[in-house]
Amino acid sequence: MPRPPSAGTPEPQSERAAHEMRSTARDLFLHALAETSIPKAFERHVSYARGVLRVCDDLYDLGAYNRVFVLAFGKAAHTMLQALTDQVGPGLSGIVVAPTEPGTQLSGFRYYHGGHPLPNAESLRAGDAVFKTLHTLTAKSLALFLISGGGSAVIEKPIDPDVSLADVVATYQALVLSGAPIAEINAIRKHLSALKGGRMALAAPLAQQVSIMVSDVPDNALDSLASGPTMPDSSTVDDCYAIAQRHKLLPALPESVRELFVRHALEETPKKDEPSFVRSRWWPVLSNGTAQKEAAAQATLHGFAVEVDNGCDDWDYRKAADHLLKKLRKLREGVSRVCLISGGEVTVKVEGKSGVGGRNQQFALYCAEKIAGENITVLSAGTDGIDGSSPAAGAIADGATVVRAQAAGLDPAKALAGFDAHALFETLGDAITTGPTGNNVRDLRILLAY
After folding, report:
1. One GO molecular function term (predicted)?
2. In a domain, 355, yes or no
């Protein structure tokens, strides 16, 4: 049941006003999504003229290389490759690995449909193809890596040949359900892979390497993007052993992987003094900060006082929600309309059998119970258009969500406990469904108080 308004809390407004505020939150997210586009990022940071490719501050004379190899992988692989070829034109060649099929296939490229969030057989086939190709590159080769979120799963090659596809999938499943922050998950992925944690760069030690990155990780942790395949790794084997112990991972790992931890047999990843990185450059061209700025600018035009809080990145969804709602209520004491924006991701530790949903819808449904009866609207959605096991990007909740759900015969508490939020929000018309966006710059949370 909604709680009565406390002293100093505005009286609940009509359903019409609440509907308008839900629409505003949705518009803010969709605006940020449209403005945080890969074509626009490439127009700003990548250009080509008279045979010279500019990537941010660097210039590359493509005619000076015997071979230019392009590897695009992750959720934004197709979009990034199209943006690059729009600049350079036809004639490039390489490999594309993505969790979605391309609209059209470009001549000169081999395509692989890798799995996400769990690797599949194509992920391993792509990993073998990339590994073999990189070893053929010479000092007269240029490797262009187009890297985006989701790259960890779509391309994989176990460093230990005794680790099967089934074992890789079981390991990823254990990591995803552990509740560990993505940086910790990726630290373990790096040390189990022949391509991650800088080992992709190690496979082509002589080549000039340039990484163009659409980032779904914190700006200060770029080596977590797609598990840092082309960058020096800041994590260590000791970190991996500590993470496994902290999250009680060993019982959930398959025997072939668990045995590596028990024997302390993980191999260290390359660090910043590795010679392979001497001719390597890394350029993030798009990140979550772009989405935050666009949402904030649009919210200002709607008359909101805006503040950004990224302090809860990688927190448990309940702790993050409590933190943001407390701050929102404090901000509302000084102004009549306030917008709090938060980027990054929250974690959800799934216990037992889960329903259909994802971290964003779980966050929104938890908030729905906390804001019942208040003039607060909460949106949480992923810029990749995919939230967990659902077809939605996320959802919107407000002070009337619990009552509306109960009136529709739904049980919010049961849905929250069962990690099964999608059906509830879909029934209420409050799911955010964009389809895969071909982009991925982490999640965006927009909280409005009025």
Report:
1. glycerate kinase activity
2. yes
Same-domain status, 20 and 44 = no
Residues 109 and 201 in one domain: yes
Smallest CA-to-CA distance from 310 within 267, 286, 346 is with: 346
E strand or H helix at 236, and its extent? none
What pTM did the predictor assign? 0.83
Calculate the alpha carbon distances from 347 to 306, 320, 358, 424, 442 in Å: 25, 9, 10, 21, 13
- Domain presence at residue 342: yes
On whether both 153 and 42 belong to a single domain, the answer is: yes
Contact between 222 and 284 under an 8 Å Cβ cutoff? The reply is: yes
pLDDT band at 177 (very low <50, low <70, confident <90, very high): confident
Reading the block at residue 106, the tokens are: 């470009």
Q: Are residues 282 and 296 in the same domain?
A: no
Note whether residue 178 is domain-resident: no
Q: Residue 44: which of 55, 52, 32, 34 has the closest Cα?
A: 55
Provide the domain limits for residue 388: 15-36+289-449
Rg, the chain, Cα only: 23
Is pLDDT above 50 for 7? no
Distance between CA atoms of 63 and 234, rounded to whole angstroms? 35
336, 13 Cβ separation under 8 angstroms: no
Dump pLDDT digits (tens) for 212-228.
999 988 878 899 999 99
Residues 194/266, Cβ–Cβ less than 8 Å: no
